[in-house]
Amino acid sequence: IQQVFRQLFYMINAVTLNNLLLRKDVCSWSTGMQLRFNISQLEEWLRGKNLQQSGAAQTLEPLIQAAQLLQLKKKTSEDAEAICSLCTSLTTQQIVKILNLYTPVNEFEERVTVAFIRNIQKHLQERNDPPQLLLDFKHTFPVLFPFNPSSITMDSIHLPASLNLDFLNKV
């Protein structure tokens, strides 16, 4: 069950983050607030179902950081440093794309300046990020089956002749 929810939450993360990276109309402060609220509801649901150890919440980390990126101030050099230290699960390319797509929804917000984006790129140039922008939503985690040893010893097993397993020998 834990593995199923980990995979499901990864797919939610990948599809949502990819939409965020491809649609200018959703890159805003209010979307960041809405995402953060919805993610907290998912995290609360995991806690309620005692699935915290499944790794499902960790798969949402890039989306959490993208939501926080949308909510942070984006003006000063200190803001750039805060963004760089916060967004460790996002690649440089994803951070820059979200900042380029950021669209103010009211008169109190301002567009992200080109100088600020260049400052971010300068801070993140030493990262060795993969060149991909979008997440692979078809990625599947390996399924792990726990080993439960049997209390029956191999010496006590009798194989009926009707199974045609004559090639097996007791050692």
Automatic annotation (TrEMBL):
An MF annotation (GO) of this entry: GTPase binding
Gene: Myo5b_3
Protein name: MYO5B protein
Organism: Ptilonorhynchus violaceus (Satin bowerbird)
Record Pfam families: DIL
Residue ranges constituting the Dilute domain according to the UniProt record: 1-126
